Amino acid sequence: MINHLILFGSVTMTVIGGTLLKIGGRAINFDSGLIGILTGYLSSGVLLLGFAFYALAAILWVYCLNAFDFSYVSFVSSAQYILLVLVSIFVFNEQISLMKWAGCFFIMVGVVFWLKG
Question: Each residue of 59-85: pLDDT tens digit?
Fold first, then answer.
């Protein structure tokens, strides 16, 4: 049970990390050259926190790769797609088309079939 929580934690931290990177990236001036971009990265607490979440997720991911079959971990991580859609809606106010919802549905049905089969 704890291994499953760690796996879900890794997936969730990846989504949180990506969300923080998108938020923090809005404040970076990408026209300022390499030094300006790196300075912006290092001075943004939100970006650094996003990188930290990604790093922690990667550490947990390696643990999960050892605790479960590779194929199982890879398919379970597909839940990330659904979490990303929810973040897109509730954090970034993006519109999700019916086709995108259908795609998410088919991904999750495929994952369930794969896990049960």
Answer: 999 999 999 999 889 888 888 888 999
